[in-house]
Design brief:
With about 425 residues, the chain is α/β, with parallel strands linked by helices. The protein has four domains: about 100 residues, Rossmann fold (3-Layer(aba) Sandwich), CATH 3.40.50; about 120 residues, Transcription Regulator spoIIAA (2-Layer Sandwich), CATH 3.30.750.210; about 110 residues, Transcription Regulator spoIIAA (2-Layer Sandwich); about 55 residues, OB fold (Dihydrolipoamide Acetyltransferase, E2P), CATH 2.40.50. Helices cover about 35% and strands about 20% of the residues. It has twelve helices and 16 strands. Strand 13 and strand 14 form a beta hairpin. Helix 11 packs parallel to helix 12. The protein is globular, with a radius of gyration of 22 Å.
Length: about 425
């Protein structure tokens, strides 16, 4: 979501005639799109601000997910702090700061802005912003507000235009994509999201569409069934677990149990035996005992995820979890993270070995020296030898010859 926000902010700066630079020393303006999910991300901002102070004529701007406590602390460090939904504040500030009143324009709702896309082959398309779930560890509802869905026609129009431009991979974004449309009227369950992805799937072209992030409590049988019939949506689901223990899940305000989560995974596997499942997990949540953690270990072993994003609990001011006793030591958090990483590596390698000898369709997205890299439909990284006939943005048939836990090696089929 922050990448998508950055692309919309870039579009505003483009309208004033600014150009992006990859060299910090050349910059006249720095805009930070913050993430408040973990303290580490905020700490990095403080570190960068110290570097920028060496250039007194630099203009610094902060947006993204910024908690009120961080806003107060950073207010003296930035020339402007604005909420992304109020993107016209950025336009007004830039026009006045650089005396560009003749170029100022009103952008309306920030989600309606045509972004300055960072890639020619890959794009992020927000379907909603904000969240209504209030997981006790999460800052998003406090930084982005309540859930707000974009109009369906606006989303499909953006996707259609991207496909016409040759974009091959599109990711639909929402803090909870499953509940898309529920704020727009009498829409229940996944009905709004199902209609959206069905309409997108009808758009002609050679492309793939993914979506993040799903909430297990909102993943319905109708949505699972729908995914089995779609042409452009790979069998890939990101299904955050966060914890495998019922007490910790309840303390996180996640509204499911371990049994319900595993039953959901079973239904997904029955409908799509070739499914790629990924997840998010937090270790060291307040009150998580060794026994609680073992329940998460059990789920990891049963599900056999293709990928998991494992984070150590980080207390965020203003959330309910911040009032809980963060009683798991940093050493213990690291230990638990390492345990899960080892299980993940074993399950990922086991799954990847089954691909050896098979043919995968790979979207080429990078080249380094004598190798090119790409992603399969299941989003696994593939390395093959560079060839004059293979270009960035191509879909290439690749025979998989060998694998590691995190990479497939192959040759053009």
């Amino acid at each position: 979501m922050n990448y998508s926000d950055a692309e919309r902010i870039s579009a505003v700066l483009d309208s004033f005639g600014f150009e992006k630079t990859e060299k910090e020393k050349e910059a006249d303006i720095f805009i930070v799109i913050a993430c408040s999910v973990r303290q580490h991300a905020i700490d990095r901002i403080y570190g960068k601000v110290k570097e920028w102070k060496e250039k007194p004529d630099l203009t610094t701007i902060l947006s993204g997910c910024v908690l009120e406590t961080d806003k107060k602390k950073l207010a003296q460090q930035f020339d402007l702090i604005f909420e992304i939904k109020n993107i016209n504040h950025l336009s007004d500030f830039v026009s006045n700061k650089f005396n560009l009143q003749d170029k100022i324009e009103s952008f309306g709702d920030y989600l309606s802005i045509i972004p300055s896309y960072n890639s020619k082959i890959r794009a992020f398309v927000p379907v909603s912003t904000g969240c209504n779930n209030y997981c006790t560890y999460c800052a998003v509802p406090y930084t982005r507000g309540r859930e707000k869905s974009r109009p369906k026609d606006e989303i499909t129009s953006e996707v259609r235009n991207l496909i016409k431009k040759g974009v091959k991979e599109i990711t639909l974004l929402g803090q909870n994509v499953n509940s898309y449309g529920q704020d727009l009227g009498e829409i229940k369950g996944n009905d709004g999201f199902i209609k959206l992805i069905q309409e997108i799937d009808k758009i002609p072209g050679n492309y793939r569409v993914y979506f993040y992030s799903n909430h297990p409590k909102d993943m319905t049988a109708d949505l699972i069934k729908t995914l089995t019939h779609l042409e452009h949506f790979p069998h890939y689901i990101h299904l955050p677990l966060q914890s495998g223990n019922d007490k910790i899940i309840k303390d996180m305000n996640r509204h499911y149990t371990q049994k319900e989560y595993l039953t959901l995974v079973e239904k997904i596997n029955e409908a799509m035996p070739d499914i790629t499942l990924t997840t998010d997990i937090i270790v060291g949540f307040p009150g998580e005992t060794e026994k609680h953690f073992e329940d998460t270990v059990d789920v990891m072993k049963k599900v056999k995820y293709d990928m998991a994003f494992i984070a150590q609990f980080s207390s965020r001011p203003g959330t309910k979890a911040a009032k809980m006793d963060d009683n798991v030591s940093n050493d213990e958090k690291r230990k638990r993270e390492n345990v899960l990483q080892k299980i993940l590596a074993e399950s990922a390698l086991e799954k990847n070995k089954k691909l050896v000898g098979g043919i995968e369709t790979v979207l080429i997205d990078e080249e380094k020296k004598d190798k090119v890299y790409g992603r399969t439909a299941s989003y696994k990284v593939v390395e093959i030898k560079k060839s004059p006939t293979i270009k960035i943005g191509d879909f290439v048939k690749v025979k998989i010859n060998s694998v590691t836990a995190w990479k497939l090696m192959g040759s053009k089929a």
